[in-house]
Amino acid sequence: MDNIDIEEMFQSLGPITIKRMFGGKGIYHMGRILALEVDDEILLKADDASASEFEAAGARRWAYEGKKGKAINMPYWSIPDDAFDDPDEMARWVRLAYEAALRSDK
Fold first, then answer.
1. What residues does the TfoX N-terminal domain cover (predicted)?
2. Residues of the chain with pLDDT under 70
3. Which pTM value belongs to this model?
4. Considering the domain 3-104, what is its CATH architecture?
C-alpha cells in the first residue's frame, strides 16, 4: 500500500508519520504508533479496552509464528470491512486505535 493511500485512511486524525519497519510500515500520530502495514494490509492497534469491539466487528487479530511454531498474538487487528466503504466508520476505527496508543503510554 502506498503512503498516499495510508494517509487518506488516517486523515481524520490529522498528520501522520509513516516509517519503514519489520519489512512493513509503522504508522504514527503525535509520536505514537497506532497502526502497522504488513503484507499490504493495515492493522490497527487495540488493547484490553477496545479489542472486543474489533472482534465483534469481525476483525482478525494479527499473530505471527514464533520460535517452536507457537503463535504470538500482537495488539493489532485488521480493519473491519464496513470501514472501507464509509469514511465516518474508518474515522471511528482509526480513533479507537489512537486511543489505544495513548493508553499504552501509561
1. 8-101
2. 106
3. 0.93
4. 2-Layer Sandwich (3.30)
